[in-house]
Amino acid sequence: MKRIRASPRSSASQSFFSRVYALVRQVPRGRVVTYGQIARALGAPGAARTVGWAMRGSPASVPWHRVVNARGEISLRPTTGYHEQRARLKAEGVRFDRAGKIDLEKYGWKRV
DNA sequence: CGAATGACCAAGC
DNA sequence: GGCTTGGCCATTC
Questions:
Q1: Which residues are within 7 Å of strand B by their Cβ atom?
Q2: A14, A24, A69, A76: which one has the fewest Cβ atoms less than 10 Å from its Cβ?
Q3: Cβ contact A27:A62 at 8 Å
């Protein structure tokens, strides 16, 4: 098995990640947020990728399944957890269109 | 400090 | 609608 380079949480990188987790925990059930949205809320309007990296090591207490990309799609690969995320969202009442996308105008958290 | 990485984003074709 | 390219950023080694 391939070993990932130090999981985020196994290190003392709690500054940025912790804020990401704290924010994601605030996402109400049945709503979703985008990586970019989180990044901006944290004051790093371009760190969307970093947010994704943070989610990768997100604790079980974090509703990571409510985080999708700017297009309203699940960013995970089918082999990484796509199915699980989609199932969880569906269980919360989030709908997916034919292309497997979510209507951010409708389910987006604090949609602007 | 430099190079590599990643669950991203916007723009182009 | 789908694929490619370049750019951004924090973290890691």
A1: A 4-5, 34-36, 48-53, 55-56, 58, 64-65, 67, 69-71, 75-77, 80-81, 85
A2: A14
A3: no
